[in-house]
Amino acid sequence: MIRLENVCKRYHGGHDALDDISLDIATGELVLVTGHSGAGKSTLLKLLAAIERPTSGSIWFNEQNISRIRRSSLPWLRRNFGLVFQDRKLLMDRDVLHNVLLPLDIAGTPRHDAFVQSRAALDQVGLGAFERTKPAALSAGEQQLVCIARAIATRPPLLLLDEPTSNLDADAATAILKQLLAFNRHGTTVIVSSHDPATHRALPGRMITLAHGKMTP
Fold this sequence. Notes:
By secondary structure, the protein is α/β, with parallel strands linked by helices. The protein has helices at residues 41-48, 74-78, 96-107, 111-124, 140-152, 170-185, 197-202, and strands spanning 2-11, 15-25, 30-35, 56-61, 64-65, 81-84, 158-162, 189-193, 206-211, 214-216. The strands form two sheets. A six-stranded mixed beta sheet has the order 6-7-8-3-9-10, with helices on both faces. A four-stranded antiparallel beta sheet has the order 2-1-4-5, with helices on one face.
């Protein structure tokens, strides 16, 4: 599904966030990306989602070189991804259901189908009863579950999650990790960045460790 070939990412000022990363991720894998703060975990996920481009090297998704993809093709590409980053970017003036609807609206999904898929996604994460609730009335863990529901509403083959349990209590974190395991068991490829040992113990996937932008054994 995903192949990285000698990928480097250098930011302005000469900082190498990633250095010579080569990696293959198969369809249906559960992959944990770990490492210290600043190791390059978030940068790696942003490159995989084509939010940023590598300075050098190639990134392939289903045999397409997404590191050189045209900007006009990005909306099509991102329909394959469910993205959950640390800044949740929930719309506080909309209820939970309409937050989850957003990517389906962008994709042009027929309205009836979009509502069906959004409600199904909320049911999957246990928030079906909160569809008319505004995000501000939810706990941090519930808000993160809304983000996950939004990410899976389009039924993408790949989920990318950056520190999904950051700043959550143990119960909320456990609920989220159980959901990620369930998605993976149903065939979704899941890539999670986390420095949290509890997350590593709860998700029995392949672990990739980064240190100062390099992969370590």
